[in-house]
Amino acid sequence: MDYQEVRYDVSEAIATVTLHRPDKLNAWTMRMEGEYRHALAAAEQDPEVRVIVVTGAGRGFCSGADMALLTGLTQGETLSEGPREEDLLRASPGARPDVREDFRMTYTWPPSIPKPILAAVNGPAVGLGLVHTLYCDVRFASDRARFGTAFARRGLIAEHGISWMLPRLVGPQNALDLLLSGRIIDAAEAFEMRLVSRVVPHAQLMPTVRAYARDLATVCSPRSIAIMKKQVYDALFQDLATANTIANDLMLKSFESEDFREGVESFVQRRAPRFTGR
Prior knowledge:
By secondary structure, the chain is α/β, with parallel strands linked by helices. It has two domains: 6-216, Alpha-Beta Complex (2-enoyl-CoA Hydratase, Chain A, domain 1); 221-268. It has eleven helices and nine strands. The protein has helices spanning 30-45, 67-74, 84-88, 128-134, 162-170, 172-181, 187-192, 205-219, 222-235, 240-255, 258-268; strands spanning 6-11, 14-19, 51-56, 117-121, 124-126, 138-142, 146-148, 185-186, 198-200. The strands form two sheets. The protein has a six-stranded mixed sheet with strand order 1-2-3-4-6-9, sandwiched between helices. Helix 9 packs antiparallel against helix 10.
């Protein structure tokens, strides 16, 4: 793939996907959407990749939809218009039959990827940029990061399932605060709201995220991670009894796995585990 608006790199079992329109604060375009989907699908399918990191180039994570795109919509254009190549770029993560329909939609599919996706929010994440962080699994923020919905200030609504996901992360009151006001909050307030899991000095953002990612990639079973990620997202639609029954069945299957045996043996032998994902 000849990426133009995304950068894709793999090292140490970590795939780093970088939104790359730094002169536009990585404002979202239809081409970027296609390349982003392609990059995450590539990371999902690569057996050498165990963790995915998403970040932005330059001063921003993603400032939202490109204003040229929004201006076109005000003039009657549709999102489907544009070069055919960009339609062809749309990969389809989440196409497996065991994935809920909820996680097969335009922007909701990252939870269907059975590998952890870490957002390294290096600057403004606004509107559609904020939406993308919400569908990552864990969010790390630079102390220069900023967050906002902006929808009410553009005559728009809570898009792409954000009205479902945001309250589950920060609670209904905080979600309504961010949605109704469209105000921008800093990283410290985002942490207080539990929108992000950690805030670090800007220079330490990528080293911190990569250290966390390396830990997941080297000492945690990819089989366990994939199953637990699915459990957590599926449980958002389940009652406790259902989640418990499913977990009991999955635990019995875990006892038969190679990774379980390796996890016990490496602990007893006081050595680093060599997990295979089987």
